[in-house]
Amino acid sequence: MSRHTNRLRTTAAAAALLLALPLSIAAAAPALAAPATPAAATGSAAGATTAPTAVHVELPRPTGPYAVGQEVLHLVDQNRPDPWVPSAGPRQLMVTMYYPAHAGTGSPAPYMTAAAARMLLDGKLPGNTLPTEDVTNTRTWSATDAQPKGGHYPLVVLSPGFTMPRASLTSLAEDLGSRGYVVALVDHTYENTGTTFPDGQTLPCVVCGTLKTPEAWQGLDESRAKDVSFVIDQLTARPHPAWRYARMIDRDRIGMAGHSAGGAAAVPALVTDDRIQAGADLDGSMDYLVPESGIGGKPFLMMGHPLPGGGEDTSWTKSWSRLDGWKRWLTVDGADHGSFTDFPLFFEALGMPQGPDTTLSGQRAVQLTRQYVGAFFDLQLKGIDQPLLDGPTAANPEVRFNS
Questions:
Q1: How many of the other CB atoms lie within 10 Å of CB of 59?
Q2: Per-residue model confidence as pLDDT tens digits over 88-126
Q3: Pick from 316, 367, 319: which is nearest to 345 by CA?
Q4: pLDDT-based confidence at residue 53 (cuts at 50, 70, 90)
Q5: Helix then strand then coil, % of the chain, to nearest 5
Q6: Are strands 90-101 and 67-81 parallel, antiparallel or unpaired?
Q7: 165 preceded by a cis bond (ω within 30 of 0)
Q8: DSSP codes, 258-311
């Protein structure tokens, strides 16, 4: 499971990972930027002149019993200047809330704004000619302004990978919502290809390509942990929380999960915020190592892809022995760094080749990520027994348990 600089050195040549790579790496591989048209994929000479055809990506249907509502929040931390652009004033975040809802209420939720989608495509695919609609037309399963289901539900905060928009974890967020969770999916401003705010501005990635040292990556993780704690502050504030449906949140059951840098940030978040009871890291190098004193006995899930040559990320091996509560370390054979996001679904629809060691389909990757992350939070935040987490199963031969 490769993360940050180690991951980038070993996978920059894999076209299937292009959308998952930071901008500086993507820009270094322009030959990989153009996805094959259907004709080119079959070897036809016509592929050289045929314009790319529009695609329509449909996210996998959520697996839980609830319909899913969605609402977007704009949160402003008046007590903290923006860490990357201090001249911008207070730290501002865009957060998408997912929640159990009444079926048939609300209207279909968009995948992401057109401006953010354009910046994603242009930033990740140098020389890009793909239409914005290839992203914005994505079929989601959540509904804007859906009527919430009654009850109190655990809260899970999700943090995406560095340079990645929050939309990249939509499939996971919708599935958790359908399983009976309130989910706060956070965009970390100036850390991804583009974040659209209510005033119409779409702010770019300011720190992409600037993090050159382990200390800088650790600082990113710590900053994200502060973002997450602020989001929890806003959602659980009394008597005036920032979200109109905040009454749905069970303040005593809160977890965090993330991909890449978002997963790495779960460590400082768990260390510094007593409210967060459980954390999951999806393929994120732990630049902020688990302290030698542990994380207060809190449960932790590590889920990643195998490194070339069979090695292990040293930050994971160091941190594993320090985890002092319930823990699992899962390796998903056939996966790559992007397999824990929605993006493989786009790669397949666009005809982009997978890396030579990537055999997991986008649908299967989403399925496994949902199963194990959902099982982890069902066990840790709901107290529901999960045999899936006890060891290998014949139904999921791709998933190896490390010890």
A1: 20
A2: 999 999 999 999 999 999 999 999 999 999 999 999 888
A3: 367
A4: low
A5: 35, 20, 45
A6: antiparallel
A7: no
A8: EETHHHHTHHHHHHH-TT--EEEEES---SSPPPTT-STT--EEEEE-PPGGG-
